[in-house]
Write a structure and sequence with these properties.
This protein has about 100 residues and is an alpha+beta fold. The chain has six helices and three strands. It has one domain: CBS-domain (Roll), CATH 3.10.580. The longest helix is centred in the C-terminal third of the chain and has 14 residues. Keywords: CBS domain.
Length: about 100
């Protein structure tokens, strides 16, 4: 069976919530009925292009406090780049030196 993360799996690093069980039982059913993605999504996201230099993308992410950046081509999302992707690329370059 395929694992589908729930809200708390996606936000697993939030340490200020002490009792996730209580929050799941009391808040999630109501949220599930009241909200859809359109209600909370960013309507005009900051994006990168495939030909954007890596350090430029890192700068955009830092400036906007983003962990991920959608990559677009012809106004369609073709991928995403994350801070971890950038760290891996820098590590690979440094390792080759």
């Amino acid at each position: 069976m395929m694992f589908i993360p729930d809200y708390f799996d996606l936000l697993g690093d939030l340490s200020y919530i002490e009792d996730f069980g209580l929050l799941k039982a009391e808040v999630l059913p109501e949220l599930n009925q009241l909200l859809v993605i359109d209600d909370i999504m960013i309507k005009k996201p900051v994006t990168a292009t495939e030909d954007m230099p890596l350090l430029a993308a890192a700068s955009v992410m830092a400036h906007h406090h983003l962990n991920i950046l959608p990559v677009v081509k012809d106004n369609k999302v073709v991928g995403i780049i994350s801070q971890m992707d950038i760290c891996r690329a820098v590590y690979r370059v440094e390792k080759k030196k």
